[in-house]
């Protein structure tokens, strides 16, 4: 029944007049079309031959030892060229839409990308196969800070500074860089199998998206939700821009705690307060000193004035506030509201002035007096030296503190009060909270709802301006000669702004645009609807695909991106921008550590793909639990690469055991078997009925898990069925049908079952492992179209629960016999006799599969007996109980030479006893137990327990064998 090689196939098909078909036409260079009237079987094979023109794209398991990872790119390009990634609007139905979290245009693929691409592609491929018009919207983010930093570094290597070029020329250079390198991340995402509609790919600085950003700013400003003011922000001295909280990373770092005397005005030399600070250079910005009102040590100083050191006698009030921690440092707090987030909030509560001592580049300004112009860290050193000279330095000590660093440049971020543009968030947050409470938006896992609600309930206004040149320019113009804070114009263009200015101030007015750009997250928050055509809500894509179905992203940006998209979507479209939010965790190394270059534990996805294949990587990533961090190990990848090979080998086995292509009668018989009706399933032989029933149960379970987005469950359910049920059991069962039955009808039903089940497995697994499943699918004669667009298996198909239980009894019996063979070290090739004892009903179905039982258990088919009572030589047999009412008796003489085995075990028992006695002697020694390290003693105890267990088992077996020798004698 082996399939012919490609050369014989070509010769046979060229002369074939009664039936012309192909098993894997993509292997052969042929363009034949079918022009004759075909029977049902001929139509079946005509469908297979339809893909013959795709020669060279796929490789059949028949000719390849294993799946070749290099084929992945060819398969991907073929999918894309066929238009499979585009939504099929003609199918009708409710669209399924996923907006891709746009990666930075500066990005290079990392495991975080691999995770979101895998999960989103699973959703997309599943819903595409379910027949829904499916759209995955791809794009990239202009990444204001990151991109500007990359280009500035490139220019620095040329000896050029940004300021030397000017804004227009610098922006031009950034666009040139983007054109040359900006597609890197997109091409890398494609290597992961992302089935996005790349014809709809968008960039956040595209004309249409830029128009949406301007429109959003204007509408928010018109409603009074955007305002300008001076407030505390995270400041990057190197980039000289405000940065968002998300772009600040905190790390525990060794530092110094400085203790400094603040003398009390009007007091004696002994009247002073000692403060402890990690940033003494900010003392020039002190506007008060505070103590806890319950701290009796300082009660006498409350209401007096303290003299700020090295400020030529500047006085600040000594206040009391319960915010001050009595146990930190000395319990005295210097309040520098211009340079500390907590001090800023405290100063606003207490009505204190704000004093800024720092320039935008991190140097001290004129407020610092003699220290003006010094870098903040240089000033710290000089300041401490001067404090020591003047006797105001008490001491300094090592201290570990939480240091804020720029995610992009790595420099220490400076809290700084700066004039910026802000969005009032409370009105927007209220509606976003309602969306979840009313069930309009579902967040998965559910526990993140509490975090979402907490953040939105305590939301702060959003600083949306950045002091950069790359990005969306703020659509605000100022009138020359007028107060910038009072007189400004918000407009969609320079022309519109000038017209407004002329209308108000006359024809000769001059205007200039705000130099700042908008925070990248501002444009990203408009992503789902602006990508689909908003603010033109009549756009076809907007009408058809908005709101989107699922937003999938990392839980670490729930607040910074997801919540803001919800708020903006409701504000501008009146609708929540997506129905579901699915959050994944971080990818960590095998030890649970965050991946970092410093630790040297970064795993590169592209290197992983080259070694293990995309499918193995995707399957590994998808098996995690939603919202939980995933520890990625090479062992998991190796295991799932083996899973890929197991699939391939299963396909190889099936293809090699199909009827010959010109055996018309065999194919007619094979195609006559159906598995979608109750009457057809219950008529199947027991193994086929079992495996088809198990498959139908699996389809229901897997489909339900896909719908709930329980992808870890999906992967485990398919893996267990394929490996444990199909590969380990049914394929082995089928060998009895194909090689030993001699009955073509029995072989035919097995071949039909193999094709049906394997094809269904490929469909269920395709969203996880798209490449190997498509390659295998193309080799099956039953395929009608590409797997990527094939129909999902129907649910609620018939299953026979009774047959499942019956076959499980057969499995239990097989395992029991295998265990005995292993226990007595019976050679694999040796066939043994067996007496199967059970009630008549069980005997009927077990005996009906005697060939299967014999093959799987390595029994001598001619000496397998079935009875309702034990055999006469039962006392010379090993008795095993498979399940209630099902037993087996295996003659010892078939398996071992009893006398020789008794001698062997007796010698082994002596050696084992000696080893055990030695271990117990060590444990009986008080000097060993008391003096040896605890882990050594524990190890000896564990070895002793294991030795005792083996000793008992060997004694029991020896006694059993001795009893058989006595009986025989």
From TrEMBL:
<feature type="domain" description="Aminoacyl-tRNA synthetase class Ia">
    <location>
        <begin position="75"/>
        <end position="633"/>
    </location>
</feature>
<keyword id="KW-0067">ATP-binding</keyword>
<dbReference type="InterPro" id="IPR001412">
    <property type="entry name" value="aa-tRNA-synth_I_CS"/>
</dbReference>
<dbReference type="InterPro" id="IPR019499">
    <property type="entry name" value="Val-tRNA_synth_tRNA-bd"/>
</dbReference>
<dbReference type="InterPro" id="IPR009008">
    <property type="entry name" value="Val/Leu/Ile-tRNA-synth_edit"/>
</dbReference>
<feature type="domain" description="Methionyl/Valyl/Leucyl/Isoleucyl-tRNA synthetase anticodon-binding">
    <location>
        <begin position="690"/>
        <end position="831"/>
    </location>
</feature>
<protein>
    <recommendedName>
        <fullName>valine--tRNA ligase</fullName>
        <ecNumber>6.1.1.9</ecNumber>
    </recommendedName>
</protein>
<keyword id="KW-0648">Protein biosynthesis</keyword>
<dbReference type="GO" id="GO:0002161">
    <property type="term" value="F:aminoacyl-tRNA deacylase activity"/>
</dbReference>
<dbReference type="InterPro" id="IPR037118">
    <property type="entry name" value="Val-tRNA_synth_C_sf"/>
</dbReference>
<keyword id="KW-0030">Aminoacyl-tRNA synthetase</keyword>
<dbReference type="Pfam" id="PF10458">
    <property type="entry name" value="Val_tRNA-synt_C"/>
</dbReference>
<dbReference type="InterPro" id="IPR013155">
    <property type="entry name" value="M/V/L/I-tRNA-synth_anticd-bd"/>
</dbReference>
<dbReference type="InterPro" id="IPR009080">
    <property type="entry name" value="tRNAsynth_Ia_anticodon-bd"/>
</dbReference>
<comment type="similarity">
    <text>Belongs to the class-I aminoacyl-tRNA synthetase family.</text>
</comment>
<feature type="domain" description="Valyl-tRNA synthetase tRNA-binding arm">
    <location>
        <begin position="897"/>
        <end position="961"/>
    </location>
</feature>
<dbReference type="InterPro" id="IPR033705">
    <property type="entry name" value="Anticodon_Ia_Val"/>
</dbReference>
<dbReference type="GO" id="GO:0004832">
    <property type="term" value="F:valine-tRNA ligase activity"/>
</dbReference>
<dbReference type="Pfam" id="PF08264">
    <property type="entry name" value="Anticodon_1"/>
</dbReference>
<dbReference type="GO" id="GO:0009791">
    <property type="term" value="P:post-embryonic development"/>
</dbReference>
<dbReference type="Pfam" id="PF00133">
    <property type="entry name" value="tRNA-synt_1"/>
</dbReference>
<keyword id="KW-0436">Ligase</keyword>
<dbReference type="InterPro" id="IPR010978">
    <property type="entry name" value="tRNA-bd_arm"/>
</dbReference>
<dbReference type="InterPro" id="IPR002303">
    <property type="entry name" value="Valyl-tRNA_ligase"/>
</dbReference>
<feature type="coiled-coil region">
    <location>
        <begin position="895"/>
        <end position="964"/>
    </location>
</feature>
<dbReference type="GO" id="GO:0006438">
    <property type="term" value="P:valyl-tRNA aminoacylation"/>
</dbReference>
<keyword id="KW-0175">Coiled coil</keyword>
<keyword id="KW-0547">Nucleotide-binding</keyword>
<dbReference type="InterPro" id="IPR002300">
    <property type="entry name" value="aa-tRNA-synth_Ia"/>
</dbReference>
<dbReference type="GO" id="GO:0005829">
    <property type="term" value="C:cytosol"/>
</dbReference>
<dbReference type="GO" id="GO:0005524">
    <property type="term" value="F:ATP binding"/>
</dbReference>
<dbReference type="InterPro" id="IPR014729">
    <property type="entry name" value="Rossmann-like_a/b/a_fold"/>
</dbReference>
<dbReference type="GO" id="GO:0048608">
    <property type="term" value="P:reproductive structure development"/>
</dbReference>
């Amino acid at each position: 029944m082996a399939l012919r090689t490609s050369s014989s196939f070509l010769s046979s098909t060229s002369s074939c007049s009664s039936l012309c078909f192909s098993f894997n036409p993509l292997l052969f260079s042929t363009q034949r079309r079918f022009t004759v009237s075909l029977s049902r079987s001929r139509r079946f094979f005509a469908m297979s031959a339809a893909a013959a023109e795709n020669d060279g794209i796929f490789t059949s398991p028949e000719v390849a030892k294993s799946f070749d990872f290099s084929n992945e790119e060819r398969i991907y390009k073929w999918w894309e060229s066929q238009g499979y990634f585009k939504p099929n609007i003609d199918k009708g139905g409710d669209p399924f839409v996923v907006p891709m979290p746009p990666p930075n245009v500066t990005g290079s693929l990392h495991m975080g990308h691999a995770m979101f691409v895998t999960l989103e592609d699973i959703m997309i491929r599943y819903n595409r196969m379910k027949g829904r018009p499916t759209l995955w919207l791809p794009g990239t983010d202009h990444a204001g800070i990151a991109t500007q930093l990359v280009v500035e570094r490139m220019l620095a290597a040329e000896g050029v500074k940004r300021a030397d070029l000017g804004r227009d020329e610098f922006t031009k250079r950034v666009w040139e860089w983007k054109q040359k390198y900006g597609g890197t991340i997109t091409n890398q995402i494609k290597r992961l199998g992302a089935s996005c509609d790349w014809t709809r790919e968008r960039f956040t600085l595209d004309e249409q998206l830029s128009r949406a950003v301007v429109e959003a700013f204007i509408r928010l400003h018109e409603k009074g939700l955007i305002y300008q003011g001076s407030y505390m922000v995270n400041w990057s001295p190197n980039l000289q821009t405000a940065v968002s909280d998300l772009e600040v990373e905190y790390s525990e770092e060794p530092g110094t705690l400085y203790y400094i005397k603040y003398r009390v005005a009007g007091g004696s030399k002994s009247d002073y307060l000692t403060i402890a600070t990690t940033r003494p250079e900010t003392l020039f910005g002190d506007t008060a000193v505070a103590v806890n009102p319950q701290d009796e040590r300082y009660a006498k100083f409350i209401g007096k004035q303290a003299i700020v050191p090295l400020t030529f006698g500047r006085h600040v009030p000594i206040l009391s506030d319960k915010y001050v921690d009595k146990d930190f440092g000395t319990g005295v707090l210097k309040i520098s509201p211009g340079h500390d987030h907590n001090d800023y909030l405290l100063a606003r509560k207490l009505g204190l002035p704000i004093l800024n001592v720092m320039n935008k580049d991190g140097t001290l300004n004129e407020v610092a007096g003699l220290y003006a112009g010094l870098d903040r860290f240089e000033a710290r050193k000089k300041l401490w030296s001067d404090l020591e000279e003047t006797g105001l330095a008490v001491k300094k000590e090592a201290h570990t503190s939480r240091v804020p660093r720029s995610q992009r440049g790595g420099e220490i971020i400076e809290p700084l009060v700066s004039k910026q543009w802000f969005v009032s968030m409370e009105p927007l947050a209220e509606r976003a909270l309602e969306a979840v409470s009313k069930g309009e938006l579902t967040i998965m896992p559910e526990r993140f709802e509490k975090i979402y609600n907490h953040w939105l309930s305590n939301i702060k206004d959003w600083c949306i301006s950045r002091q950069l040149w790359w990005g969306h320019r703020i659509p605000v113009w100022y009138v020359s000669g007028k107060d910038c804070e009072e007189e400004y114009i918000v407009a969609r263009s320079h022309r519109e702004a000038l017209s407004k200015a002329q209308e108000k101030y006359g024809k000769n007015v001059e205007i200039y645009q705000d130099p700042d750009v908008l925070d990248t997250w501002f444009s990203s928050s408009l992503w789902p609807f602006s990508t689909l055509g908003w603010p033109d809500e009549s756009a076809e894509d907007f009408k058809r695909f908005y709101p989107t179905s699922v937003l999938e992203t990392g839980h670490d940006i729930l607040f910074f991106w997801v919540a803001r998209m919800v708020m903006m979507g409701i504000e501008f479209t009146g609708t929540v921008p997506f129905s579901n939010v699915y959050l994944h965790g971080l990818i960590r190394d095998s030890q649970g550590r965050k991946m970092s270059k410093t630790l040297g534990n970064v795993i590169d996805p592209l290197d992983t793909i080259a070694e293990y294949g995309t499918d193995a990587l995707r399957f590994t990533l998808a098996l995690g639990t939603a919202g939980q961090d995933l520890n990625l190990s090479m062992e998991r990848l190796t295991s799932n690469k083996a899973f890929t090979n197991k699939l391939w080998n299963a396909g190889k086995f099936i293809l090699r055991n199909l009827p010959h292509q010109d055996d018309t009668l065999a194919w007619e018989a094979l195609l006559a078997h159906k598995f979608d009706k109750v009457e057809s399933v219950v008529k199947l032989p027991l193994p086929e009925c079992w495996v088809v029933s198990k498959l139908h149960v699996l389809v229901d379970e897997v489909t339900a898990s896909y719908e709930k987005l329980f992808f870890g469950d999906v992967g485990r359910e398919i893996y267990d069925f394929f490996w444990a049920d199909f590969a380990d059991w049914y394929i082995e069962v089928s060998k009895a049908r194909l090689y030993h039955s001699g009955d073509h009808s029995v072989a035919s039903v097995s071949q039909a079952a193999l094709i049906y089940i394997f094809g269904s497995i490929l469909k269920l697994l395709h969203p996880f492992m798209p490449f190997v499943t498509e390659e295998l699918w193309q080799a099956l004669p039953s395929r009608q179209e590409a797997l990527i667009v094939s129909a999902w298996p129907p649910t609620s198909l018939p299953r026979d629960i009774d047959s499942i239980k019956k076959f499980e009894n057969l499995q239990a019996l097989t395992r029991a016999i295998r265990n005995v063979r292993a226990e007595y070290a019976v050679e694999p090739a040796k066939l043994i006799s067996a007496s199967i004892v059970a009630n008549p009903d069980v005997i009927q179905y077990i005996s009906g599969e005697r060939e299967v039982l014999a093959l799987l258990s390595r029994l001598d088919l001619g000496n397998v007996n079935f009875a309702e009572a034990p055999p006469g030589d039962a006392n010379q047999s090993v008795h095993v109980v498979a399940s209630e009412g099902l037993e087996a008796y295996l003659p010892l003489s078939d398996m071992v030479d009893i006398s020789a085995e008794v001698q062997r075990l007796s010698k082994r028992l002596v050696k084992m006893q000696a080893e055990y006695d030695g271990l117990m002697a060590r444990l009986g020694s008080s000097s060993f137990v008391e003096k040896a390290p605890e882990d050594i003693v524990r190890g000896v105890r564990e070895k002793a327990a294991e030795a005792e267990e083996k000793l008992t088992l060997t004694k029991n077996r020896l006694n059993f064998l001795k009893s058989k020798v006595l009986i025989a004698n």
